[in-house]
Structure formats: structure tokens, C-alpha cells
């Protein structure tokens, strides 16, 4: 079974969210009705007994008012039928009088004293009457019609039991109807407000997982202000982010494939150029002798770049080959690679501390500064081309303890807010049309490979990037000797 059918095809014997909601709704409503039904039955029994006692008090007054306390037997039986009792006894002080009796009743089974306060036992007594009250006699004791009197009646609980069963049937039927109506209303309401939106979110997640490259499968938030609305909005944001990252990864994979195809031919061409440049060393022209070493070094770097197939293509960056390197020499190579000669349209200032060495891979530091410098040149081009009276690139280098701080700043227009939000992210941080943003991404990766950090400095004219290269934690004496050799 595939994921897209996982929601609809529930395993047998298992309820979905809707089924569980319906079952729990019915259960809780029935529990509520039972909690109402139980005290209602107990109260019905007590009211029934109190009604019998009230009638017995009225009958006792009539019987007590008869001459010599004697009434005709037909009247006595009639009064007993009205009271629904077998016998009526009045107790005044210590004297007990049998006011009326139908037949001499057998021994009573239980005694109910209504003079005592009602407690939780009334519930148990009510159910005991429903279960065992058939043809069972009970003696009921209560206050008499006059102060100080006590009246007792002997009753058959059969009539009480039948009345309680009839009452229970009506209550249960009413509870069933209320449960069905309430349960249906609660179920429909919760299904519309909770279950269906949650199901929609679940289906969207499963559907999106099958094809994250399809933007039409991204959930659209309903704009609700409750927790489900927040979940919808967050899911939409997350799916859009994943969709963007998926597209980015696809483009990176395509870039890696394209670079790997270009790399073979480009490397061969550079190797041929390297062979021809080697012959320049035999030319005696002073200008050629001055430029030949830099040309050869540049070709060596280009061949090494082809060997690594560029970052973010099909390969990752090689670990840095670190050594103590004079930073001023690397900065001068960057100036040459950018084509910034003295008196050119863009000024170049090197403010590197005298004799400053950095514990780093010189080629990777060169690439970092070159990428940042090219970004500055592109910024100048974006506002109509370089202006020799305004545009300048400045490289600053200084040591702060065991860390070398390097800054490259320009006098360009700076970075817009959109580019700042996705700084150092490939295909996200470019400020020009058609740009890929790989320059900053590569620079950030190379700096982090050295254990350093890179950031954009706020509050400066144009754009200023600062990155740090910490020294490796090795023996200080060996490091000092290495620095001395680099200075020599």
C-alpha cells in the first residue's frame, strides 16, 4: 500500500479519527446521562414514599377522629388502598395503636426511616428496590401528623418497583434521544471544525511527500485564527521552503553535471596553456619575466579549481592545506586577478599589517578574497560602471591574538534587504539579475573549513565583509619558527 492510500485504507479493526470521535462522543454523553439518571431514580423512590406517607398521615387523622377510634372495616380497607399500605400504626409517646390493617402481614423485610437524613445509601436502596422489591414488604417510619407522633406504615414494594421501572424506562428513552441528538450535533460540529481540517492537513503532507517539486501540492492556509489555522500556516511555510530547497538542490545537481562535463575539456585547454606559458620563462624580456611567474601561478590555480570541479557542483571542497602564508602576497595576487592596476577606474588599497602571516591554505584564501572582490566589481557595474573618483576596494588585515581578521570593503551601493536575508546561500543572495549567489556561498564554505566565521559588517558605506582565520592549536614555539621562515 502506497502513502497516498494510507489515509483512506485503514486496517481492519481500527477506527479512524472520525470513528474514534463518534465513539467517544457517544460514550461521554451516555456517562453524563447515567450520572443524571442514578440520582433521579433515587429521588423518585423517596418522593414516592413521601407521597405514601402524606396520604397515610391524612388517613391517620381520619381514623384517629373516629368515635372510640373505631371505623367500619370497608372504610379502613378503602383508606389502606388509597395509601397503598397493608397497615397503619400511630405511636404517641410510648403508646402504639394499630389504626388499620388489611390482613395480618407477615414479617417485613426492610425498614425505611424517613426521619434520618438522606445520604449516598439512598442510591443503593433505590436499586435494591428495583431488583428485589417484587412482593417484598417494607416498614416505613416517619413523623406523625401531630408533633411528637410517629407514624408507621407497612407497604408492599411491588407497586413502588413497578413505578420505578416505568420511570426508568422513560428516563432512559429520553436519555437515549438526548444522547443521539447531542452526540450528532457534537460530532458534526467537531468533524467540521477539527477532523476535516486535520484530515486535509494530513492528506496534504502525504500528497506533498510524493512530489515535493510540484508547487500545486503545497497546502493553502485557510486563514483561521485558532491553532489549526496556525498549523496550516506553518505547514504552508514549511512546504514552500522545502519546495524551494528541492528546486535549489535540483539546480545544484544540474550545475554539478554541467561543470563535470565542462571540466574535462577546460582542464585540457589549461594544461596546454600551462605548457606554452612555461616557454615564457626562456624569454629575456623584463616585462615577460615579471609577469610569467604570476601567469603560471594563475594557471596552476585554475587547473586546481578544475580538479575540485568547483564547490556546490558535483564535489565538495578539499580540506585546506594550511601553512603560514604572507597575507600581503595573497592580496596582491587578488588585485592582479581583478585587473586593478594603479590609476585604473577602481581604486585598490591594501591595509595589511606589515609582516602579517595567516595560518591558512593560500589558494583558498585567494579564492575567498577573489569572490568578494568580484562581487564588489559587479556592484560597481550595477550603477552604470566604475567611477574612478568614487569606487574603491579596500582590504584590511590584522592579527588579534591567535586570530587573523580580514576585511574587504567597497564603496558600492551596498546590499538590499532581500540579499541580506539569504546571505551566503547559493542561488539566494545574488543582488543582480541572472546572478547565482555562489561567490558568497563558496567564500563562506572556505572560511568555515578553516574554523573561522564570515559576516557582513553593518553601518558601513557600501558593503564590508569580515572573516576570521584562527591559528591551529599547535606548539607555540613551532609556530614562531614557522612565522620566522615565512618572513625570511
TrEMBL record:
InterPro entries attached here?
2C_sensor_his_kinase, HAMP_dom, HATPase_C_sf, HATPase_dom, His_kinase_dom, Sig_transdc_His_kin-like_C
Q: Which Gene3D superfamilies match?
A: 1.10.287.130, Histidine kinase-like ATPase, C-terminal domain (3.30.565.10)
Q: Name one GO biological process term.
A: signal transduction
Q: Which organism is it from?
A: Hansschlegelia zhihuaiae
Q: What is this protein called?
A: histidine kinase
- List the subcellular locations: Membrane
Span of domain Histidine kinase: 261-473
Question: Which EC number(s) are documented for this chain?
Answer: 2.7.13.3
Residue ranges constituting the HAMP domain according to the UniProt record: 192-247
Record PANTHER family: SENSOR PROTEIN CREC (PTHR44936), SENSOR PROTEIN RSTB (PTHR44936:SF10)
Catalytic activity, reaction form: ATP + protein L-histidine = ADP + protein N-phospho-L-histidine
Q: Which Gene Ontology MF annotations are present?
A: ATP binding; protein histidine kinase activity
List where the protein spans the membrane: 21-42, 171-195
Tell me the keywords, alphabetical order: ATP-binding, Kinase, Membrane, Nucleotide-binding, Phosphoprotein, Transferase, Transmembrane, Transmembrane helix
Q: What is its main location?
A: membrane
This entry carries the following GO cellular component terms, namely: membrane
Write down the CDD domains for this protein, in alphabetical order: HATPase
**SUPFAM superfamilies, per the entry:** ATPase domain of HSP90 chaperone/DNA topoisomerase II/histidine kinase (SSF55874)
Which SMART domains does UniProt cross-reference here?
A: HATPase_c
Amino acid at each position: 500500500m502506497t502513502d497516498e492510500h494510507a489515509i483512506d485504507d485503514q486496517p481492519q479493526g481500527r477506527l479512524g479519527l472520525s470513528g474514534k470521535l463518534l465513539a467517544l462522543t457517544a460514550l461521554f454523553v451516555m456517562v453524563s446521562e447515567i450520572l443524571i439518571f442514578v440520582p433521579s431514580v433515587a429521588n423518585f423512590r423517596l418522593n414516592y414514599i413521601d407521597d405514601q406517607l402524606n396520604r397515610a398521615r391524612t388517613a391517620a387523622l381520619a381514623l384517629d377522629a373516629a368515635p372510640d377510634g373505631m371505623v367500619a372495616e370497608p372504610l379502613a380497607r378503602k383508606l389502606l388502598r388509597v395509601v397503598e399500605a397493608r397497615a397503619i400504626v400511630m405511636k404517641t409517646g410510648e403508646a402504639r395503636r394499630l389504626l388499620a390493617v388489611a390482613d395480618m402481614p407477615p414479617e417485613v423485610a426492610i425498614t425505611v426511616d424517613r426521619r434520618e437524613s438522606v445520604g449516598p445509601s439512598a442510591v443503593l436502596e433505590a436499586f435494591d428496590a428495583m431488583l428485589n422489591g417484587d412482593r417484598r414488604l417494607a416498614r416505613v417510619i416517619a413523623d406523625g401528623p401531630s408533633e411528637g407522633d410517629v407514624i408507621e406504615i407497612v407497604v408492599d414494594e411491588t407497586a413502588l418497583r413497578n413505578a420505578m421501572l416505568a420511570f426508568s424506562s422513560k428516563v432512559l428513552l429520553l436519555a437515549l434521544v438526548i444522547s443521539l441528538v447531542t452526540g450528532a450535533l457534537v460530532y458534526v460540529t467537531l468533524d467540521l471544525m477539527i477532523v476535516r481540517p486535520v484530515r486535509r492537513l494530513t492528506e496534504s503532507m502525504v500528497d506533498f511527500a510524493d512530489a515535493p517539486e510540484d508547487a500545486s501540492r503545497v497546502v493553502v492556509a485557510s486563514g483561521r485564527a485558532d491553532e489549526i489555522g496556525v498549523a496550516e500556516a506553518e505547514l504552508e511555510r514549511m512546504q514552500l521552503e522545502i519546495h524551494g530547497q528541492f528546486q535549489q538542490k535540483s539546480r545544484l545537481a544540474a550545475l554539478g553535471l554541467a561543470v563535470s562535463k565542462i571540466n574535462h575539456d577546460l582542464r585540457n585547454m589549461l594544461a596546454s596553456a600551462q605548457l606554452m606559458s612555461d616557454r615564457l620563462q626562456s624569454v629575456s624580456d623584463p616585462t615577460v619575466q615579471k609577469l610569467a611567474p604570476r601567469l603560471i601561478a594563475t594557471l596552476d590555480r585554475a587547473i586546481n579549481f578544475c580538479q575540485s570541479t568547483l564547490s556546490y557542483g558535483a564535489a565538495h571542497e578539499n580540506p585546506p592545506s594550511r601553512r603560514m602564508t604572507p597575507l600581503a602576497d595573497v592580496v596582491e595576487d587578488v588585485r592582479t586577478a581583478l585587473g586593478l592596476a594603479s590609476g585604473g577606474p577602481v581604486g585598490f588599497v591594501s591595509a595589511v599589517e606589515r609582516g602579517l602571516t595567516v595560518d591558512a591554505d593560500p589558494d583558498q584564501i585567494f579564492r575567498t578574497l577573489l569572490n568578494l572582490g568580484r562581487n564588489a566589481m559587479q556592484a560597481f557595474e550595477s550603477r552604470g560602471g566604475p567611477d574612478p573618483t568614487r569606487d574603491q576596494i579596500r582590504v584590511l588585515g590584522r592579527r588579534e591574538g591567535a586570530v587573523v581578521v580580514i576585511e574587504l570593503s567597497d564603496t558600492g551601493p551596498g546590499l538590499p534587504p532581500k540579499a541580506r536575508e539569504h546571505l551566503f546561500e547559493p542561488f539566494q543572495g545574488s543582488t543582480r539579475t541572472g546572478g547565482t549567489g555562489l561567490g558568497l556561498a563558496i567564500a563562506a564554505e572556505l572560511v568555515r573549513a578553516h574554523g573561522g566565521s564570515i559576516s557582513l559588517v553593518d553601518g558601513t558605506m557600501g558593503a564590508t565583509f569580515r572573516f576570521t582565520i584562527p591559528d591551529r592549536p599547535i606548539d607555540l614555539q613551532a609556530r614562531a619558527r614557522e612565522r620566522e621562515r615565512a618572513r625570511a
